[in-house]
Structure formats: structure tokens, C-alpha cells
């Protein structure tokens, strides 16, 4: 790794796409985006300690803010009319195996990169007083996790993606296993091994693609025409890794444990950053297009099960954190549904849903964490009448609950509306079943809100609760602003996403001709979905 860093600094060359020249952007923004939080994490580990918690926290906050700074020129200079990757940096890492430091962003990854950097700041601020032991290790792990996440969302090289993807497991495992609750070790080990087993299957798919192309370049992988069985096996390998991270039913069982026994910060990071959905749309759909169509009925079925079954499970939960875990599984079912209906508004809606629900779920988890920090319990039965002692907190929870339901004007509405419209265009009855999420999410969210927030003060513990402090108010205020900005004016987001969705849809609709495919007996999978609609994406509002 040290030799790679030296080579990177000595021979760094950026190769921007022809639409975006180096004259406009003289800094390696994506490298800074990845390495600033990683280096900041190392600095925190070296300079921080429990004996100097204040210094440790401020170093972590400075590192998180510094990691966000490259996002500003990225968003400001991003061109919505360009469908290719922008801000591309391409430096040869291993010529023997054709592995490169190859990074770039398009309309899909741009907002995920921005959300990652913003989430890091949010978690540092949210954990300011709640983490009192091994403070340096906690903040250092989160900062390095942020850098690895940025590597996942910007990688254009398969091996670089795999290294970044796997690197995220280490800090997450440590965070869950060290700062979690009573059963934290079980939750951490379960999360690690379920994720790692899926990643091994993904690695097998990647190595097969390398054997066919002698390169780890994702663009070359997408252009390679594969036969029936190679596509099937590659798709299943990617599904094993990314289905766990979505999480899809029935690969979801680790998430309730992490929500219940992991630290709030880890749950927020997992909830706000959608590695699984991103992996499916970046790898499975364009690299194995015919297999994606072949498995579309299965994926749609699993998505509908996740939407309905997880919502029903959420209705019977007695712990707020487990309820929000099943809510996440249900809402992410809409993401996979949108991806596999293979029309423009559905896939664009899936991406918007990843962004918007990332904000909403993060906000709901932060609110739950604030209550837990005050009372050391997340049991719904232990609350009641919180609005009487925490009126400002109750107002924020109301807004986030409405966004969780999908109320128009909030971020939760935009993605859900687009996915449901795409599902209805694909098949009316599939769209109708998916729309049941509107009723079910309202049922379990309002039931939780009523039990916790409204009514008379339930007990002495609730009577002693203190309302939000200035730090907490600013934190939830920033989250509320995001919820409203995305909900009231989604156009800047969808304008950036739409051209990239068009490219993704074209790649996932690519047919395999016998003359182009690898020898496999001449059989080819048949598309399970109709051709994409010619209409451009329309956003509500």
C-alpha cells in the first residue's frame, strides 16, 4: 500500500472525459474525497485519547468537514448534460493485472458521494457526547469507513471496488462489536460473516470476468458479451453480495440485530448509505443484462415480499429500533422493485428512493438514539407523553414520521411515487401490491408515534426527559431541511440522475447475439421485461 501511495503521488495523472477537461478542475477531487477521511481517521487514532476527549472530537469534526469540502466543487461543476463519467482519474496501479486507480462519478454516484460525506459529519456531531470510551478508536473507525465508502461509490476498476467494498467490513465489525449493546458480539459476527460469504461469490464473478477480458476495467466488463450460463452465475454472485447489503428478503436477518445491539452511529451509516442497491445497478444490471431480465420476475417477487411482509413484521415490534429495521427492509424493497421493472421512471425512482430514504431512516434512527441515550431503553411500552417534556423533539419526529410514510412535500414521497409509477407502467397489479406500503407504513409509523409521543406522561423516566439541546436541535434541523429540500424541489437531483439512468437502461437492455457470445451452445436468456418507455423521467412537483 505504501508503494502504491508513493506511485500515486509521483506519477499522478488525471484523465478527464472529453466532455470535462482538466482546465476546469485542476485538483484530484475524488482522490481527496477518499483519502482525506482515511488520513483524518489515522490522525485521530494517533493524536486522540480518552484523556483528551474534547481534542479527539474536534479533530474528528475537522476531518469530517474537510472530507466534505471536495463535494462542493463536485456538485457545482457537475454537468447534467453529460452521460459519461466525470472527474475521472486513471492511474495504473498494477500493469501486470491491469488494475488501476480508476475513479469517476456520474449522476448516480454524485449524490451518494455527497450523502456519504454529509453523513460522516452528522455521525460525528451526533456521537459528540454519547461516546465516552475509546473515543479516538470510535471516531477514527468512522472516518476511515467514510473514506472506504467513497471508494465504493467512485470506483471504475473492479479490483479497486472490491478492496473498498471489503474494507468497509472491518470498521463496521469493530464499531458494532465494541460500542454496541448486550448482544453486540453476536450482531457483529453475524453481519461480518453473512457479508463476507456474499463477497466471496462476488469475487468469483469478478475473477471470471477478468479471465474473459484480462482487465478489471468496469467499462470493458459492461461491453463484454457473455453467454447464458456465465451471465446467470455472474448475476447470482453479484446478487449474493449486494442482496445482503440492500438488505433483500430473505438475506435481511442481520439488520434487526445491528439496529438493536449496534451503536446508533453504525446503524445510521448502514441506513443512509445504500451499498447494495448501488452495487446492483452498477454491476448486475449492465454486466449481466440478459440474466437480469431472466431473474426479474424473481427479483420483483422478492421485492414485493419485502415490502408487505416486512411492514407486517414492523407492526408487531415492541422495540423502536427493530421497528425501524423492518421499515428499512420494506422501503428498500421498493428500490429493488424500481430497478427490475426496467423503465426509466422506475429506475430513476429507485435511485431517488435510496437517497431520500437514506436521509429519513438516518433521521429516525438519530431520534431513537437520542431517546435511548436519555433513558437507556428503546421499548415502546416504556414511553408515552414525550411531547409534554420534549416538544421540539416531538415536532421533528412528526416531520420525519411523515416522510417515512411518504407524505407529499417530503423526500419520502418523491422516490416512492416514481417507483410506484414505474411499477404500474410495468404491470398494474404489481404496482397495486407495491402501493400497499403507503397504508402499511402509515400504520406502523403512526402507531409508534402515538404510543411514544402522545398521551399523558407515562412514568417518572419520561417526566425527567430534557428537550433538545442546541447541538441536537441544529443536527435534526439540518436533517429536516434535507427532507424538505428533496421533497419540495427534487428537480436538481433528478436532472443529474436522469441521463445516467438512460445509459444504465440502455446497457441493461443490451441483447446478446449468438455471434457475440461465448461458446455455450447458442442458448440465450429471454428478457422478462418490456422495452423501456421512451418518455423521459417526470418528477412530482
Report on this structure.
The chain folds into 2 domains: 261 residues, no CATH class; 220 residues, no CATH class. 70% of the residues lie in helices and 3% in strands. The chain has 26 helices and 2 strands. A two-stranded antiparallel ribbon has the order 1-2. Strand 1 and strand 2 form a beta hairpin. It is globular and about 65 Å long. The N terminus and C terminus are likely disordered.
Q: Find the count of extended strands (DSSP E, 2+ residues).
A: 2
Task: State the helical fraction.
Answer: 55-70%
Q: Low-confidence parts, pLDDT < 50 over ≥5 residues?
A: 1-24, 512-541
Order of strands across the biggest sheet? 1-2
Number of helices: 26
Biggest sheet character: 2 strands, antiparallel
Give me the strand/helix succession. HHHHEEHHHHHHHHHHHHHHHHHHHHHH
Give the overall average pLDDT: 84
- Helix and strand content put the structural class at mainly alpha
Biased composition (Low complexity): 527-541
Region (Disordered): 507-541
Protein name: NADH dehydrogenase subunit M
Transmembrane segments: 25-45, 57-76, 108-128, 135-153, 159-179, 191-211, 231-255, 267-288, 294-316, 323-342, 354-372, 393-414, 426-447, 468-488
Summed up:
With 541 residues, this protein is mostly helical.
Tag the structure with descriptive keywords:
541 residues, mainly alpha, 2 domains, disordered N terminus, disordered C terminus, NADH dehydrogenase activity
